[in-house]
Design goal:
Elements: H1 2-21, H2 26-60, H3 65-90, H4 94-128
Helix pairs in contact: 1-2, 2-3, 3-4
Amino acid sequence: MLLAKIIFIAVITVILGITISNFNKEFKVYITVIFGILVMFMLFTELKAYIEEFTNIFTRYNIRIEYFATILKIVGIAYLCDFISLLCKDLNYESVGKKVEMAGKLIILIYSIDVIKIFLDQILILVNG
């Protein structure tokens, strides 16, 4: 159902963008940005229930929630950087978009080091005891 809503809003956005761009091309950019923000809001609202479900699973099995939080940060950074990069490309600022992608990759690398440390800690706990 969520996908149908997004597709419907996308079709309306495209039609509105084509119609308005005949009068003023700047409004096409605003419509595109508003559409992107609206879709992200809809997706994050839907995702909230699933994140709460995962959190309950972690607490039920006595797994530290920091593991899940770190993984969520990595995934969130990846999606956010991709969204901003695509938006920059739409606005003909592809070089800025590439720099956002590079920054996102480096930040993911930084957070991945935390995940690797957590993973190694768990292995040492299993081996030692």
